[in-house]
Write a structure and sequence with these properties.
- The protein is mainly α and 129 residues long.
- It has helices spanning 3-13, 25-48, 52-71, 75-102, 105-124.
- It has one domain (3-123): Flagellar protein FliS (Four Helix Bundle (Hemerythrin (Met), subunit A), Up-down Bundle), CATH 1.20.120.
- The protein contains 5 helices and no strands.
- The protein starts with a helix and ends in a 5-residue tail after the last helix.
């Protein structure tokens, strides 16, 4: 596991969820997506409460998680799909940075929607137990 993926897992672990140790790789990715969505939603709440420090912390964690998701991609094996996901993750992080600077909840909603769509597809390809 590379350092970005480890950082993303550490950001997720900071929620106090120890069950991550027992999750399979598919579940780990799903949990990272959920963690990113949760942090972005928390940042949106911080914007509404004008809590600049909390907004920055939550967005920083979301960016780290999305960076971790990107680092888990295998561009060689995943081909065009992995490359497209990598570009989409990069786009999401740019939008999160813009939302941070502009205090723009609409950009946060856009990223939540994008991650939710990817998550929905990810759930569909769950490995058979």
């Amino acid at each position: 596991m590379n350092s970005l993926a480890k950082n993303a897992l550490n950001e997720y672990r900071s929620t106090g969820n120890s069950s991550i140790v027992y999750a399979d790789p598919h579940q780990l990715i799903l949990r990272l997506m959920n963690g990113a969505i949760q942090r972005i939603a928390q940042a949106k709440g911080a914007i509404k409460q004008n809590d600049i420090q909390a907004k920055g912390e939550f967005l920083s964690k979301a960016i780290a998680i999305i960076g971790g998701l990107s680092s888990c991609l295998d561009i060689e094996k995943g081909g065009e799909l992995a490359a497209n996901l990598d570009s989409l993750y990069e786009y999401m992080n740019v939008r999160l940075l813009e939302a941070n600077v502009e205090n723009n909840p609409a950009k946060l909603d856009e990223v939540i929607n994008l991650i939710s769509e990817i998550k929905s597809a990810w759930v569909q390809i769950a490995p058979a137990s």
